[in-house]
Amino acid sequence: MESWKNGSFKPEDAIRAAQIQGMARRMIGMVRSVSKLPTYRRRFRNVVKALSAYSLEKNGPVRTGSVRSVNSI
């Protein structure tokens, strides 16, 4: 029970301590899985890429003064 070094009391009951540790492990797992979800910026870039690809497919390549490609977004 080295994890109780933040000033809180260590549970006397071993079963209760195991339950708390199990909940902590589950919470860590949930946080890790949530952090894998796409962020707003990544989602926005994917939408821009999809719209650009759709526009190119529908209208053909359009020459503009921009040198930035869709892949660099």
Could you walk me through the main structural features you see in this protein, from its secondary elements to its overall organization?
By secondary structure, this protein is mainly alpha-helical. Helices cover 58% and strands 0% of the residues. It contains 2 helices and no strands. It has helices at residues 14-35, 40-59. The radius of gyration is 25 Å and the shape is rod-shaped. The model has no long low-confidence stretch (mean pLDDT 76).
Q: Which helices and strands occur, and which strands form pairs?
A:
Elements: H1 14-35, H2 40-59
How many individual β-strands?
0
Radius of gyration: 25 Å
Described by the principal axes of the CA atoms, the overall outline is: rod-shaped
Strand content: under 5%
Mean pLDDT: 76
The helix/strand order is HH
**What is the rounded distance between the termini?**
48 Å
Task: Give the count of helical stretches.
Answer: 2
Q: Major sheet: size, sense and barrel closure?
A: none
Counting helices, strands and paired strands, the structural category is mainly alpha
Tell me the helix content. Answer: 55-70%
Provide the low-confidence segments as ranges.
none
What labels would you give this structure?
mainly alpha
Structure at a glance:
The protein is mainly alpha-helical and 73 residues long.
